[in-house]
Structures are given as C-alpha cells and as structure tokens.
Design goal:
elongated, eight-stranded mixed beta sheet
Length: about 240
Amino acid sequence: MSADDGVSLARLVHRLEEVVGELRGIPVDVERVDDDALVRQQIAQVVPAAGELRAMQPLSSMEKGSQEQRSRRRVLEALERGMTMRTIIHASVLDDPGKVARIRQLHASGDRHRVVEEPIQQVLIFDRAVAFLRMTPFAYAPGTLVIRQQSLLTALIDLFERTWDRAREIDEPTHRLSAREREVLALIAEGRSNSAVARALSITEAAVGKHVAGVFAKLELRETPDDNRRVLAVLAYLRGTAR
C-alpha cells in the first residue's frame, strides 16, 4: 500500500463524515453508528448470508479475551460453510505471538492474509452489499460508518484490491521477524556494518549482534563454510519487500 493509498482512505473517511453531516435527515445509504455493541450486532446479522469478506485489520483493532474467542469461532464457522475471506493486516500485529497464532489458525482454515507496513484503518466489506468502516484507527473508539451506497462500496473495494496487490504474503519468512529485527536487517541491506547499525538505532553493538543472531535463527540460516548468512538474510529481506 503506497502513501497515496493511505491518504486516499483517510480523505475518504473524512469526506464520508462530511456527507453524513450534510445529509442529516435525508435518506442516504451511509449511517454512522457510535455504539460498538450495535455495530457487532449488525455485523453478526450480515455474516450468515454473505459469501465474501474483504477486511483490513490494524494492530489496535484486534479483539481481546472472550470477545476475540467469539469472533474467531464466527470466522471459522463462516469459513466452514464456504465464505471466501481475505484479510490485510499491519506488520506490527506479527510482533504479538498470541495474535500470530490466531492469524495462522485462520489462514490455515482459508482466511487468506497479507501484510502491509503502512498504517491502515479497520474496514469489513461483505460482498458488494455493505461495509463497516471505523472512522478512527483507535481500538474501541466510537464511530463506525455502515455503508450501503454502491459508489462508495466500489471505491472501498478498489482501495482494498490495490492494497492487496501490493501487500506481501504472510508466509514469507521475513514476517517472522520482530519490528527491531526488521530495522536491523533493513540497515544491513543498505550495506551497514554492525557498528553502523548500532549508531543508527542508538543501541549497543552487542544488541545488534543479538538481533542479527535472531534473524539468522528465524530465517533458518545455518552456519556453513560455503554460505554467507549475512548475504542470504539480505536476499530474503529483498525478496520479501520487492513486491
């Protein structure tokens, strides 16, 4: 997802808020719902009849506790009955082992996931019938737009598809890395030494060494007399970000 796409989504959300305000009292297929419980209820009503779901899930939007368990059961049940699902997540989600376990379970069950580095907002698009778009990126913040206007649905679907095409597969090995390990590897890919990486990140050289060892372990790069693990790690990084 490019910066321009992120700006486009933010502008779309802002414009939708303006439209809802301007057309207050006039029948329109965009509704603002401030009660999260009511939003969840409306989503639950849509799910049984839907055949396809496109979703964007930023880090802050992931549920916790019993709510997360109920949500996961609903997704698995929908997949079992044949719903097609594609989900775009933010890379920072992969820093949480619990969320990674949930994502991998859903991915293995048929909810295809891809990863982006740029900020995204929470949106659920069911078929071409209705979308639920949170107006702020913060967890549990009130304000979701329920959109049935066809022209707006088309715009949201187009943004989703362009983002999906640019996103990376979740199974790429570089997505096993933590945010700090990705930073270290990115600097190594620029040709920096460990001491230069340490200066750039304001950490010790020993810490850089630990992160580099973590990168080698997670990318399953074993030390052999014939291979340069540093070069192999950079190649894996470049393959993972060249999309």
